[in-house]
Design brief:
Blueprint: H1 3-14, H2 19-27, H3 30-43, H4 48-57, H5 75-88, H6 90-109, H7 112-118, E1 126-139, E2 142-152, E3 160-167, E4 173-179, E5 184-186, E6 200-210, E7 214-216, H8 236-262, H9 274-306, H10 313-341, H11 343-346, H12 350-361, H13 369-379, E8 388-389, E9 392-393
Parallel strand pairs: 1-3
Antiparallel strand pairs: 1-2, 2-6, 3-4, 4-7, 5-6, 8-9
Length: 394
């Protein structure tokens, strides 16, 4: 057992790990995570030493209620964790935030006895998909769940699946938690970027899931844990994907700076090019302003929750818009970095991998054009009486 694992074992009996302990531990993982990034891209999964370190450091427990052994971080603290890991390797950051969210929400919204039983699972990790509902047929004691889904990010490093299905009687959607050995997986993650996330397809065919191993998808009142869980699952997207975008954008600009400095003094080098200097400054400002907006919105959300109030529709709108902005700025920064690095970005290496990862991450539904279109409608006062349900303003 590693030193980190020993500390986690103590935490499970003597109290949950502190936020500062987890942040410090995650901050010390850069070299390990970075070193395995290229091989993750080839293997289509995160290297086992990295996965072990993620669990041992508490990175997978940042959204888990403290009463169940997690650190239950504030949104901005969780974003610091995801930014740090995404900077080191985008696939590792992506897998971490996917596992952390699904695991933590099950802990918050399961009935307490079921949650305590679930969290006795060694190295518990829950991954899956929740944006497209399958079928859940009510039966005695639970549901028979069927369907086909895509994008099970991190599932190769999880103990359980998290997936959405609609009650065939009531039409309401629930999230179901299923042990991975009951799930049929399709190893089909052949994609441009984020190859290490193993975001494969999967299916269930009439799998029985006890009622207590599920919870309503629109849950906002936690059984266990504090105000963090009252934001609703749709609002977690900017914590996850916004932080990911900021971390990857920072790494791109840092890698470009290293590349340009290495060529200083050569004829035609960007190091002596005033236009490049200007464009780099603009890219830096885009990244920092995107981060500032994202964190500013979450500071306001945290304040609202601390007062015991609910988020307004407008604040939810700003949250989603801030994520779209971070994603758009990352897209623009990646294009600038790719063009400026020339053949260094074309060939196999860190810059090429980061560029490919960006253009996988920008495809996520949470940053789709319809989100920003809906946000503009609401901000302009043209959506009276409408509210956000996951990724739709209805």
């Amino acid at each position: 057992m590693t030193e980190l694992a020993e500390r986690r074992t103590l935490a499970s009996t003597d109290g949950a790990p502190s936020t500062s302990e987890v942040l410090t531990a995650v901050g010390g993982l850069h070299d390990l995570v970075d070193a395995h990034g290229p091989q993750n891209d080839i293997d289509g999964r995160i290297a086992e030493p990295v996965v072990e370190a993620l669990y041992d450091s508490g990175a997978i427990g940042v959204i888990t209620p403290r009463e169940l052994g997690g650190s239950e971080m504030t949104p901005r603290q969780a974003m610091d964790v995801y930014r740090t890991l995404s900077y080191a390797d985008p696939s590792t950051g992506w897998v971490t935030m996917a596992l952390a969210m699904s695991t933590g929400l099950a802990g918050a919204f399961f009935e307490r006895d079921a949650a305590e039983e679930l969290f006795r699972t060694p190295r518990l990790g829950i991954a899956g998909q929740g944006t497209r509902a399958g079928r859940a047929e009510p039966v005695d004691g639970g549901y028979r769940v069927s369907g086909q889904w895509s994008f099970a990010s991190g599932i190769k490093h999880a103990t359980h699946l998290h997936t959405a299905a609609a009650d065939t009687t009531s039409g309401t959607t629930r999230f179901f938690i299923v042990p991975v050995d009951q799930v049929d997986f399709v190893d089909n993650w052949d994609v441009l970027g984020l190859r290490g996330t193993a975001s494969i397809d999967y299916s269930l065919d009439g799998v029985f899931v006890p009622t207590e191993m599920s919870y309503p998808s629109l849950s906002v009142e936690p059984v266990t844990g504090g105000s963090l869980y009252r934001v609703g699952i749709g609002n977690f997207a900017s914590i996850n994907h916004g932080a990911w975008a900021i971390g990857v954008g920072r790494r791109l600009l840092d890698e470009l700076a290293v590349t340009v400095r290495a060529k200083a003094g050569r004829a035609g080098s960007s190091a002596e090019n005033a236009s490049f200097h200007e464009q780099y400054a603009i890219a830096e400002l885009k990244l920092r302003s995107a981060q500032a907006l994202l964190y500013d919105v979450w500071e306001e959300i945290e304040g609202v929750l601390a007062e015991g109030d609910r988020m307004s529709v407008r604040l939810e709108t700003l949250n989603r818009a801030a994520l779209c902005n971070a994603t758009e700025q990352l897209d623009q920064i990646s294009g600038f970095v790719y063009r400026s690095a020339g053949s260094d970005a074309l060939r196999r290496g860190t810059l090429q991998r980061l560029y490919r990862d960006v253009h996988a991450g920008t495809q996520h539904i949470s940053s789709s054009p319809i989100i920003l279109q809906s946000a503009g409608r609401q901000l302009a006062g043209l959506a009276e009486g409408q509210k956000w349900v996951h990724f739709q303003l209805i």
